[in-house]
Amino acid sequence: MNKIHHTAIICSNYKISKKFYTHVLGLEIIREEYRQERQSYKLDLALNGDYIIELFSFPNPPKRPSRPEACGLRHLAFEVDDLEKIIAHCKSYNVIAEPIRIDEFTNKRFTFIADPDNLPIEFYEK
């Protein structure tokens, strides 16, 4: 294996999640298509030119618990240079970060926000 190719996310409200991932997180749109036969959007997103997320919408997707510590995908983590800068950016979109914590093994700082479907998003300072 070389690296993780992408992560697929199914959202409950495509318009809201598209805005979150493109405006709040700043991911770039590579391709967007509507698949009539599935009544589903598929949005391919990149970070710094690298394809990383497929955002899907489907009619009435079932809820999947993410907290407290549910089995399955725990969170997405993004490396950042400046934690305060990303926290302020998120706050400007009314997305509030948890208090900054310190990783007990690396002594690096990190925090979490949640996407519109409550999927935890971690920002881990470089």
Automatic annotation (TrEMBL):
Pfam families the record matches: Glyoxalase
Highest taxon above the source species: Bacteria
Coiled coil: none
A molecular-function term among this protein's GO annotations: metal ion binding
Keyword Metal-binding carried by entry: yes
Domain VOC: 3-126
PROSITE patterns: VOC
InterPro entries the UniProt entry points to: Fosfomycin_Res_Enzymes, Glyas_Bleomycin-R_OHBP_Dase, Glyas_Fos-R_dOase_dom, VOC_core, YwkD-like_dom
Keyword set, alphabetical order: Metal-binding
NCBIfam families reported in the protein's UniProt record: PRK11478.1
Protein name: Glyoxylase I family protein
